[in-house]
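Student: Send me a single protein entry containing the residue sequence and its fold in token form, directly below this note:

Tutor:
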Amino acid sequence: MRSFLFKSGLSVIATAGMFCSTATAQMPSMGSTASPIGRTYTPPPPVPSAPYGLDQLDQGVESRRFKVESQQSAVESSDSAFNSQPSTLDFQQYQLDDFLTLAAQNNPTIRQAQLQISAQTAKALQAGLYPNPILNYIGEQIGVDVEGDKDSPGEFQGMTVSQRFVTAGKLKLSREKYMRRAHISEHLAMAQQFRVCNDVRIHFFRALAAREIVELRKELLKTAEDGAVTARELYNQGQATRPQVRKSSIALQRARLDVLTAENHYRESFRRLVAIVGVDLTDGIVSGELMPQGDPLSYQEAMSLVLTESPELAAARAKLAADRVTVRREQVEWVPDIVAEGGAGYNFEAKETTAAAGVSIELPVFDRNQGTIRQAQLDYRRQQEEIRRTELMLGQQMANVYQQYLTALQIATEYDRVIIPEAELAYQELLESYKANRVDWPTVLDAQMDYFDSRLTRVQQLEQVRTNEVLVRGYLLHGGLMAAPGPTPPGHIDAVAKPR
């Protein structure tokens, strides 16, 4: 483009002489000290500083200072500097699978969710353990005075052992209850894995889109530099005004700032991705395909997938089964256990060895666990409604996410199919017209900007497509750094020193 600009500029110079005087007369007054056209030079704006490690970009753009000795030196020096500019993102490349593998090994919430499974199995173990026996020492009437012995050891000295015999299968039901809660924790751990993997995918595609935007912004910067070069050449030929030159300088500086902003945004996206993974990684390049692969999901397929396979719904249904066991467990709590006691000792009054035995049982006259049974039954009914609430909530979220997914997919598809090809053809046609001296160079630059803007919009829409596609296919789960929820929702019964 720039070499052609130089060639076309020569033809303009050939005819510039006859128009110089006219152009000078038409120029707005710049003050009494204004120099004639072609003898003054408006310098470009300074390169913006980059305090966050973007020195390479500064050096690359700084080397593109425009020259005014001749049109050829201006164009060729700009080309040479751009081609030699080092990439500020020339780091190690990472694929999506790399991040997924690292996240599975290092994300702390996944380990938390797995530990909750072990915690519930430990509760099941404890809840099913049989009560320990109790060893008693018994000494009756120690020191009583008897004939011939004023300080006797008492009437009876001995040991007894008591044991509680649990009835009505309470221990079995308690263990089953917590094993079912461990099953809930398994579903919640699966949901947490989806949250982490979905977040990794979402942040990966966002970083991938940010990287593509950096490349587009660099192309736009090159276009702005072309515009600045052209404006100064036209000004020196008497075909542009000084305000037009200043306007091109403003556009150039904005393009430079857009590159800095895009690179900073990429680094932010990469660091967010690294935070989800749970491993400290240096800045690098994400490598992958932003365009979706395969056929898109229909809304019916997406809803069927989430209602049949969602780990959240599976956990809610497993919680209902655990609540059913809880009701059965509390219904037998009032059945009294039997406490048996037996032992032997020496009766000093009778001068012989004797035995002791006893049996005790609690009479459920007043407390038959009525309130706790009622609470467990209400928790069971509430969990039935919780399943329905979860289904409706997922349906509501799916409606919103799928709408965003479908809209972004339609826009990106049309940009690929119609808008970008048409913008590219318009740019090429205007470039051919410029070669034939039928249009001005700024018109070509405007078409080039439209073409780049269309590509930028396509990347932004593809980012939305991939983000929402991950949620649609990943059961709407996200939040990979939120602690995994426990199997017992707030308000549900879970209280006694020994689990039951």
